[in-house]
Request: fold
Amino acid sequence: MRSKGDGFEVDEYVQVRNLITKKGWGATRSNENMFIQRAISLYSKLDTKQRESFLVLLEQFDFYQFTDYENFLVDIYIRMREEIVGLEKILIIPLEKQGEQILKSGSLVAYLFRTTLIKYIDEHSFNNKSLRIKVKHRLTTEDVEEYAENPNSRIVFVDDFIGTGRSTIEVIKSYKKIGLKEENVLVLTFICLQTSIEKFNAYKFKFIYSAIGKTLSDVFSEKDDLEEKGYFLSRYLKK
Reply:
């Protein structure tokens, strides 16, 4: 068995490169090269068994680029407009804990609601009948009072990915202290796990998502495979 850090053959490099190229990672040539270089850098540090695991997991990975985010935004925005009849105005809030200092992906999703893409959707899908959209980083008591008074308004928490749904529930519960009611809440995400879908069924807020993400158990059914791939993922790929 090859030890960690041993060199690799040309055909191994070609295998990694072809896999990344096939999956279409990288919008530009330089981007694609970056993915290949990073993958090869990790691959070269692994032993034979770990390299096999790495390639299997790499084959299963989904990687989303900014153009995918735009497609997700179009999807959830149109679905929101169609599923909530009479909607007139929304307040967009990143799905982040109160007092969070680190800028997270929810802020990017919130910002996308201020781009011209929303106007384009309104023009082409809703005959220029637009919503009044306000984007804020945090929710205030005044916001809750304003959007609770109008049955055709919603406070919308947004994110790009929701896993177990635990953090989502914690955020909504934290805002209940200032009068927020679940009935006035809408949660939008680009990608979620099946776990969160099932969990949110027990709550009164509406939940809209664009895609369901894969978990290890969706891909590997054997217990040994799950344990081995789970260890490898936590040990090497989440650093």
User: Anything to note?
Assistant: The chain has a mean pLDDT of 85.
